[in-house]
Amino acid sequence: MGKWKTYAIGAGLGTLLVLGLIIWGLYALGGAGESALERFRDIAIIFVMLLFLLVVVFLGAIAAALAFLTLQIKDRVIPLLEELTGTVKRVRGTAQFMTEEAVKPILTIAGSVARVRAMTRTVTGKDTKTRKS
Fold first, then answer.
1. What pTM, to 2 d.p., does this model score?
2. CA neighbor of 44 nearest in space, from 22, 59, 65, 60
Protein backbone atom coordinates (compact mmCIF):
# COMPACT_ATOMS: atom_id res chain seq x y z
CA MET A 1 0.00 0.00 0.00
CA GLY A 2 1.29 3.49 -0.84
CA LYS A 3 2.13 6.15 1.70
CA TRP A 4 -0.76 8.37 0.68
CA LYS A 5 -3.27 5.54 1.24
CA THR A 6 -1.89 4.95 4.72
CA TYR A 7 -2.11 8.67 5.51
CA ALA A 8 -5.66 8.86 4.14
CA ILE A 9 -6.84 5.90 6.22
CA GLY A 10 -5.13 7.33 9.31
CA ALA A 11 -6.70 10.75 8.73
CA GLY A 12 -10.15 9.19 8.26
CA LEU A 13 -9.88 7.15 11.44
CA GLY A 14 -8.53 10.16 13.34
CA THR A 15 -11.43 12.31 12.13
CA LEU A 16 -13.96 9.66 13.18
CA LEU A 17 -12.32 9.40 16.60
CA VAL A 18 -12.37 13.19 17.11
CA LEU A 19 -16.01 13.43 15.99
CA GLY A 20 -16.94 10.54 18.31
CA LEU A 21 -15.22 12.24 21.24
CA ILE A 22 -16.98 15.54 20.45
CA ILE A 23 -20.36 13.82 20.29
CA TRP A 24 -19.71 11.94 23.55
CA GLY A 25 -18.56 15.16 25.25
CA LEU A 26 -21.62 17.09 24.08
CA TYR A 27 -23.88 14.23 25.14
CA ALA A 28 -22.25 14.14 28.59
CA LEU A 29 -22.76 17.90 28.97
CA GLY A 30 -26.52 17.45 28.69
CA GLY A 31 -28.58 18.12 31.78
CA ALA A 32 -29.93 15.34 33.97
CA GLY A 33 -33.51 16.32 33.14
CA GLU A 34 -33.00 15.91 29.36
CA SER A 35 -33.82 12.75 27.48
CA ALA A 36 -31.34 11.17 25.06
CA LEU A 37 -33.37 12.43 22.10
CA GLU A 38 -33.17 16.02 23.33
CA ARG A 39 -29.42 15.70 23.80
CA PHE A 40 -28.95 14.32 20.27
CA ARG A 41 -31.19 17.11 18.91
CA ASP A 42 -28.95 19.70 20.54
CA ILE A 43 -25.84 17.96 19.20
CA ALA A 44 -27.35 17.92 15.68
CA ILE A 45 -28.13 21.66 15.92
CA ILE A 46 -24.54 22.36 16.96
CA PHE A 47 -23.16 20.34 14.02
CA VAL A 48 -25.56 21.99 11.56
CA MET A 49 -24.42 25.42 12.71
CA LEU A 50 -20.75 24.41 12.47
CA LEU A 51 -21.27 23.09 8.94
CA PHE A 52 -23.14 26.28 8.03
CA LEU A 53 -20.21 28.34 9.31
CA LEU A 54 -17.79 26.17 7.33
CA VAL A 55 -19.83 26.61 4.14
CA VAL A 56 -19.94 30.39 4.62
CA VAL A 57 -16.16 30.49 5.05
CA PHE A 58 -15.63 28.35 1.92
CA LEU A 59 -18.02 30.51 -0.13
CA GLY A 60 -16.18 33.62 1.02
CA ALA A 61 -12.88 32.06 -0.05
CA ILE A 62 -14.34 31.14 -3.44
CA ALA A 63 -15.67 34.69 -3.92
CA ALA A 64 -12.25 36.13 -3.04
CA ALA A 65 -10.54 33.73 -5.45
CA LEU A 66 -12.95 34.72 -8.26
CA ALA A 67 -12.34 38.42 -7.57
CA PHE A 68 -8.58 37.82 -7.70
CA LEU A 69 -8.95 35.85 -10.94
CA THR A 70 -11.05 38.63 -12.46
CA LEU A 71 -8.38 41.20 -11.62
CA GLN A 72 -5.68 38.96 -13.08
CA ILE A 73 -7.67 38.55 -16.30
CA LYS A 74 -8.25 42.29 -16.50
CA ASP A 75 -4.59 43.15 -15.90
CA ARG A 76 -2.90 40.45 -17.96
CA VAL A 77 -5.16 38.77 -20.48
CA ILE A 78 -6.82 41.83 -22.01
CA PRO A 79 -3.49 43.53 -22.93
CA LEU A 80 -2.29 40.19 -24.25
CA LEU A 81 -5.39 39.92 -26.47
CA GLU A 82 -4.84 43.47 -27.75
CA GLU A 83 -1.24 42.64 -28.62
CA LEU A 84 -2.37 39.44 -30.32
CA THR A 85 -4.89 41.40 -32.39
CA GLY A 86 -2.14 43.78 -33.54
CA THR A 87 0.09 40.85 -34.45
CA VAL A 88 -2.68 39.20 -36.47
CA LYS A 89 -3.27 42.46 -38.37
CA ARG A 90 0.46 42.75 -39.17
CA VAL A 91 0.62 39.12 -40.33
CA ARG A 92 -2.49 39.61 -42.48
CA GLY A 93 -1.00 42.75 -44.05
CA THR A 94 2.32 40.99 -44.67
CA ALA A 95 0.58 38.00 -46.27
CA GLN A 96 -1.47 40.27 -48.51
CA PHE A 97 1.63 42.23 -49.57
CA MET A 98 3.57 39.03 -50.27
CA THR A 99 0.67 37.64 -52.29
CA GLU A 100 0.49 40.76 -54.41
CA GLU A 101 4.25 40.87 -54.92
CA ALA A 102 4.40 37.17 -55.82
CA VAL A 103 1.56 37.45 -58.34
CA LYS A 104 2.75 40.69 -59.98
CA PRO A 105 5.62 39.08 -62.00
CA ILE A 106 3.34 36.29 -63.21
CA LEU A 107 0.73 38.81 -64.34
CA THR A 108 3.41 40.83 -66.11
CA ILE A 109 4.69 37.77 -67.97
CA ALA A 110 1.17 36.62 -68.86
CA GLY A 111 0.37 40.12 -70.19
CA SER A 112 3.55 40.14 -72.28
CA VAL A 113 2.75 36.71 -73.73
CA ALA A 114 -0.78 37.82 -74.58
CA ARG A 115 0.57 40.97 -76.22
CA VAL A 116 3.04 38.94 -78.35
CA ARG A 117 0.28 36.55 -79.45
CA ALA A 118 -1.99 39.43 -80.42
CA MET A 119 0.81 41.08 -82.40
CA THR A 120 1.60 37.76 -84.10
CA ARG A 121 -2.03 37.29 -85.10
CA THR A 122 -2.23 40.83 -86.40
CA VAL A 123 1.00 40.61 -88.40
CA THR A 124 0.31 37.19 -89.91
CA GLY A 125 -3.39 37.78 -90.38
CA LYS A 126 -4.21 34.37 -88.99
CA ASP A 127 -6.65 33.76 -86.21
CA THR A 128 -5.42 31.02 -83.90
CA LYS A 129 -8.99 29.98 -83.21
CA THR A 130 -10.78 28.15 -85.98
CA ARG A 131 -14.28 29.42 -86.63
CA LYS A 132 -17.06 27.04 -87.37
CA SER A 133 -19.77 28.24 -89.71
1. 0.46
2. 22
